[in-house]
Design goal:
By secondary structure, the chain is mostly helical. The chain has helices spanning 2-40, 42-53, 83-91.
Length: 92
């Protein structure tokens, strides 16, 4: 019984860590990395701000990878004819 309770507590602790603690650590690490990048490359920060303030700048959306099927045309379903059906039609 004690083993089962211990395993359940470990499971819930792991769920808590993966849901809250690990994402928080990842965000903190990425924030630190981004700040270091912009500190080491000050021109990158200015270019990013300039692009965002440019009135002609248009943010491009990511494509979903699906082709546009609206303009493909009409779907035609062909029926496969086997040799048996061909012989029956020829005999009639």
């Amino acid at each position: 019984m004690r083993l089962i309770v211990t395993l359940i507590l470990i499971y819930f602790l792991f769920r808590l860590l993966t849901a809250y603690v690990f994402p928080w650590i990842a965000r903190w690490y990425l924030r630190q990395y981004r700040e270091k990048f912009f500190r080491d490359n000050p021109g990158a920060a200015r270019a990013s701000e300039k692009r965002k303030s440019d009135p002609g700048y248009q943010h491009r959306r990511k494509t979903t990878g699906r082709p546009d099927t609206d303009k493909l045309g009409e779907y035609i379903d062909y029926e496969e004819i086997t040799d048996d059906e061909t012989d029956k039609q020829n005999n009639n």
